[in-house]
Amino acid sequence: MFFKRLKASGLGQNSYLLGCGKGVGVVIDPRRDIEEYLEIAWNNNLSISYIFETHRQEDFEFGSRSLAQATGAQVVTGKHELFGASDIRLDNGQELMVGTTCFVAYETPGHTPESMIYAVFPKDVGRKCWGVFTGDTLFVGETVRMDLSDPEKARENAVHSMMPSTKR
């Protein structure tokens, strides 16, 4: 499996490019400037077929639309109305097979009402979860802001953002 993290300077935003077997590429939370994704995909014989969004961003704009237009990729989100337009909307616990990799979507409202995480199960690791893309729902060594949608509901949002089991 090909894996590359791309960090946007000055924004504290991470996005990811995965190769999911058979030359199929997936981008998670792409930033607005898409040239680096196109170059990395090209250099690694990947065709970007899917773009996953974990949540909408309040402080910058995702590059999902531009990347989809440049590659023909389908945009994948949860079913919450705040995601706006997307090609594939996944329910809580729903699976999407991409090449040889299974993505399982989980609703994790809290940081934002529509927050989603995606657990990744590549074929070559069996039933073990290889990783989870959490957007801004979970940070290492830090807490996530829970007051963005409504400062009065920060405590309630924190309770709702408890990460679900990633067992399949």
UniProtKB/TrEMBL annotation:
Pfam families: Lactamase_B
Highest taxon of the lineage: Bacteria
PANTHER family: PERSULFIDE DIOXYGENASE ETHE1, PERSULFIDE DIOXYGENASE ETHE1, MITOCHONDRIAL
Metallo-beta-lactamase domain sequence ranges: 12-162
Coiled coil start-end: none
Protein name (Swiss-Prot/TrEMBL): Metallo-beta-lactamase domain-containing protein
UniProt source species: Nitrosomonas communis
Transmembrane segments: none
Record's keyword terms, sorted: Metal-binding
Gene Ontology annotations of biological process type: glutathione metabolic process; hydrogen sulfide metabolic process
Keyword Metal-binding: yes
One MF term in the entry's GO annotations: sulfur dioxygenase activity
Keyword Metal-binding tagged: yes
InterPro entries (alphabetical): Metallo-B-lactamas, Mito_Persulfide_Diox, POD-like_MBL-fold, RibonucZ/Hydroxyglut_hydro
